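Predict the structure of GTP-binding protein At2g22870.
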Amino acid sequence: MVLLLRYRSLTINLTPLLIPKSHSFHTLQSFRNPKNLISIPRISSSSSTNPTTTTTTNRSISDAAKFAKSVLFVPPGVEIEELTDDMVLPGSNIVIGPFAGHSQIKEVEFVKSSARARDCPKDDRPEIAILGRSNVGKSSLINCLVRKKEVALTSKKPGKTQLINHFLVNKSWYIVDLPGYGFAKVSDAAKTDWSAFTKGYFLNRDSLVCVLLLIDASVPPQKIDLDCANWLGRNNVPMTFVFTKCDKMKATKGKRPDENIKAFQQIIRENFKVHPPWILTSSVSGLGRDELLLHMSQLRNYWDQ
Ligand code: GDP
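Done. Here is the predicted structure for GTP-binding protein At2g22870.
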């Protein structure tokens, strides 16, 4: 079975790969829900991360359904056998389920910058963190999502780029702008700092619903991004890959975004038993903006139920 996911001129061909899964992450959870962290078994070699499978594990499912489940992100409330093409968000592997809801951003306010996880706002509103290499297009994506230029500018102010910046959206959930990693000019000491405090945030922040890990589609897969994805996977931090700069269709040098994305996906499939959600975006053309917001709404609403 070959699944073609199309978006405008980008086509990603996801063919099944026969890859030994002995080193795959068995504990990845794409959805986080405080209650379900206790009641739903985490993925193991004989079960799946996806909460929907708690009802289907004893059922025999077809090879096509098994394959769809290994490449698609199927949210709670959706039965794999009932999947139709129009349930998959364009330009992504994300199935939209019953938890998707109001997704547009009406108001956003900067709340605070924190140097440590324990200094972050102390309430239990759900938060979605945005992470990526320096220059990946993080500020542009945040501006594109919230449609306000000053928001991401706040976190670009000198002194705030190395902090955890919380923005309250619609008074009900947070976007968290995390420091970019991989600064070419940053000293080793500063790099170590990044790991220590950002990792502390991932491991200790109970209200963290998901991390949007931004991957620059205009360059080939970067080791530092793969290391980051693998670390999040190993530590059971739910993530969504957000490919940025997908408008750069004609590469001036090197490969095109669709080739870079395919290469990245292939490496990820070698390490992850269940492929995390992914989506193509462009802050220039607005590609994927509404789709990403809808996906974020289903993650939040499931967490918040
Ligand atoms: P940050 O360091 O991750 O916050 O990255 P920025 O948002 O500042 O973007 C870095 C560079 O990439 C800037 O020159 C942006 O104009 C450019 N850029 C960001 N997003 C896109 C995009 O979607 N398409 C294109 N073509 N360029 C982008």
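The longest strand covers residues 208-216.
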